[in-house]
Protein 1
Amino acid sequence: MNKPISQKQVFKSLLDQKGIILSEQDFNEAYLSYRNFRKTYSELMKENFSDFEPRQRTFGEINE
Amino acid sequence: MSEPIFYKSIDELIRMYEEKSISPLEVTEDFLKRIKKYNNKLNAYLEIYNDDAINYARSLNDSKSHNPLFGIPIGLKDLVDIKNKITTAGSKILENNKATKNSKITQDFLDNQSIILGKTNLVEFAFGTLGINSNTNTCRNPWDTERVPGGSSSGSAVAVSAGLATFAIGTDTGGSIRMPASLCGITGFKPSYGIVSRRGVMDLSWSMDHVGPMARSAKDCLNIMKVIGGHDPRDKYSIKLEDNHFNEEVITNRNEIKLGLPKDYFFEEVNEEIKINVMKSVDQLSNMGYQIEEIDLPFVADGRKINIAVLLPEAISVHSEYLKNYKSYTKTVLNRMIGGLGVSSEEYLTASRAMSSFNYQMNKKMNNIDALITPTVPVIAPLISESSSPNTYESNSMGRFTGVFNLTGQPSISVPCGFTKNNLPIGMMLTGKINNDNKLLNIAIDWQNETEFHTKRPILN
């Protein structure tokens, strides 16, 4: 059975795809940002926005 | 006491030109002398158009113009294109990037015979909150030069605060006009989304980018908006307000204007001195006759998160070619950018739908409210020496409040409302109904007619 890929490995592979090579220290710092952003998206994906289409700012008459 | 030339308002300078008590050339020379004296320390400007400004100002001396910004010396954030001038975006990658056309707002200023003094300093690619850019000389807060000025429109804020321009232009994707305005003790206005054309201004995030004025008063901001606010058919996201939307309207009915005070979130984990000064300002607004109503915004804590979730993949898309040159980015900005790699289309669309849901809830709450009052930022300007890491508490929390209104697209202005015991400026943020920019500006003007915080100047050694 294949070992699950860690989030760090996923991040490394994303950097590899872009041809970005970082020192160990820079990689670890950038990974912290990546991990925080992953948490944000994972929280958003759990919510239900089925009533809404993207990027709307103004709406017609709003009734409760 | 009369202010020196370099601190005069737009109206004052225009009046002096009409009375012929001073000429555009004399004013421009005054500013350039002051820039020469202070810019080496403050680093507000990346490039100064000394000869161009002098020659142009000289050509205006015999002009009988009635343009509203005639002869006014200004700075443009180095994201804004001027034909045949370099737009670096504070980056090594664009250090030879010569613009082939004027941005729409550059053309507006040229059509109005304003005098462009130079390009102002900024965070690389406008992607940061403290105003630090290791590519450029460090931009310094005029109130304490060991402290950050805020970002990303750092140079524009510093230029206005230190009397190195009458006004400047900034951009705001998560608070980059309002945060440095607050930290530098000036007035910074983010208009409603689409009111000011972004044509010829470098993108960071198409959904969140706004362009707006940074000046020493809301009245000056209004005068600037009369010129740059308006539909641009060549900017697809530009919206059309009614003609003459921007006008000074003296407020005679304060008791009919309701200001919402959202206590939660905007007053949690906020520096105590900021909280005290903003609450004193709320009391003063109440004494002036405005209705103050506490308002509950239970959803608002998600705002900054959604702002970033939409912003990041758009920024990565904007930067897809530049990232091939990743070694030329500053570490801080590269770190932020690549932290957002791997966002799927599903995730981006979910974030965009979350944006709509958030905006719907905010629209509902704003139904009966004319403007919200909050602190602009939750923290005091940190020391430059303690701000080199990309993940300091201050850099992560600085945009907590401002970013919410990039998401909603509401007009939002930071005005000075006090000082810390160490004489650092404190900003209050007023945020209006979307596309009701004029009303918001006039409330801010009314506030400044009754207070003097915006008239205080830093002492420059």
Protein 2
Amino acid sequence: MGNIVIETRDLVKNFGKVRAVDNLNLKVFQGEIYGFLGPNGAGKTTTIRLLTGTLKPSSGSIRVLGMDMQKAEIEIKKSIGVVPDEPRMYSSLRGYEFLNFVIEIFGLDKKSMRERIEELCSAFGIDYLDKFIADMSHGMKQKLMLVSVLMRKPRVIFLDEPTVGLDARSAKILKLLLAKYASEGCTIFMTTHVLEIAEKMCSRIGIIDKGSLIAEGTMDELRKLVRDNVASLEDVFLRLTATEEDILQIVKEL
Amino acid sequence: MRQLLVLLKYGLGARYSRRDGGTRRSFGFVALVVSSFIIGFPLGSLFFELFKVLSAVRISTYTLSTLLMVQWSILSGLLFLISFVPSLINSFARNDEIQFLLTFPIERWAIVAYQMVLTLALQPLTVVMYLFVFPAYVVACGGNLFYGFLVAILFVFLMLSLSFLLSCVFGLFLERSQARRISTAGLIVTIVLFFLAMQFLPNYARNLVNQNISFLSHALTKFMHPLNIFAWPVRALNEPFYLLIMLIVCPTLFLLSVPVAEKLSFEQKVSFRSSRRIWFGAGKVFWKDLKILARNEQSLFTLLYPVAFGVLFGVSFRNFVPAMMLFTTLSGSYVAYNSAMLTKQELSVWPLPVLLPVKESNLLLPKLIVPSSIYLALFSAMLVFFKFWFSLPSTIFLLVPVMSTVFLFSSTLGMLFYLKQPFRSDPSNPSRVLTSTRVLTIQGIVLLLSLICLMPFQTSVRSALVEIVGVQNVAFLIFYGVPFGCAVLLAIFSKRLFNRVKQLFQEIE
């Protein structure tokens, strides 16, 4: 295992009386593709928002690339890329204007970025950069958001449900690109509800439920945890989140 | 600072431009300047005349115009803080743009400063009230207009720096709903004050001249106290030391705000209320729409604004007809806005509305009935108020059924215009559901309708009608016939428009 790139210690996030993240202790290593899974409302998106500095923790600490989030929020943000679940961008900007905005905010070199943008756009089949963002579909916006992150080649990439809205070709390219980046030392932290993707792509998987990390490890380690050597990630997930029997019971009663 | 400039370049560019087909046209800035002049110029001219008269009355080192100016400075400065600071805090939470910007390496103070510029552009009234009055004071006192304008701008910066600090501090703990309420109240007080100023200032100035000198001298000493920051621009005209103080205080306040801004979480401060009942029973569209309307951020403002103006006009002009005309015109546009907003809500979850086992008319009718009923209730309340205030006859309540058709008609228009728009939503400004042209069209139509329906209730018009017709009974027939005839026609037109709305709704893909 490489260096620790993402580390949380006793991380807690409360929204009023609701505890969204409960004493989370995570360690993600360099070059890993870490899959962060959990049922709806388990705290996945809140965790990503905490790890990317868009939310402040109620208690506990976060270190990304060896830097403390409380002390070096801006430095961390310069080195990471975030693809949120909902691609929110300025709707009255055109696609290329949005990319220029990102280039200027990060203070990047326009010339080298232009080449990189062309490569990525041709890979994702983006030929609509002069369209207004308001006129783009969810999938088109998602691809634009991906380009805005991938063009910078950040050291850590956080993706929240990255394949939602993508066509099969783009989704495949994204998966291959992420695997390539990881092999080059980039760390990927992603959430997904598509368990097949997580099973195939992720080197390690963490499962969160009601704000707490209930299991973590490679696929083999997770299988050992449920004492089933041939279990799929779906089986493991349902057993660990104690929902498989509930589901069977519900279906039976229906 | 570079980050702030990039934010302003792209963020303001995106916000203050309009997509028109495949092109984009800038319109916001010009509209802002023009509307500022429309509001500010008459106010500045009014004050200029007053200052000229009052500057002739000297009290120790000052004149009476100084007293009026410093009072205005305190009033507009405080109103600015009351309306601007909560507005800014309100913008911190549940703001998609801030959440998006937080994923970038942008300092939080830059995000606050950017939000401050956006808020200022949306709420320029108090600044305009000051920027036009202070130079008028300077020129009336024989000073240099350019210098006066410079000092006024510096004072605005002082207020902005103070707001920046206060917003950061209060933003750490103030709940969004509290901020929104204070902000709406502040805004309405400002608007009412603006109109009151236009109405009552000449009398106030006359009263000032008749006051006894020792009282005025005492008041001036109090108001011009060196620690009164609102008096600094007035003092700066003769004492450059105060100009220097303002130049030092502005950046100091800003620097003090930066560490506080970095502590802002931009989260919703939550207070939990126990939910006693689920009254959204059986998925009734009516209750759903009422709930959406009640939770809409603009609702409080759109309800209070026409009432405040209506009452103000009624009391100022001592006549209920122009007041109710103003109320109806403003309400008509808000009824249309609310109906369009409720329709927008359905479209935002498309195709869910057409998948529901609800008939189209049952889905669409509440969008007409809910806003119309609310404003009709307000209209009736206003009539009750004016009936007792002016001792009016009970026949004025005949206006209620007539106005119900006016509101229904404008509500249908709102839905129709919204569904006809090529760009039905503007994510950079979610509260904007109808274009300015459409809103003006609705206001024009409702003004005309209220004129037709209300004018017969004007005593002078009634007498003139009796005189022209000659026969009192025939005159009375016309007097009641016109509004009711108009109501019948409106009901027919509304029905037709509603059919067109249903057709457009069916055509949505």
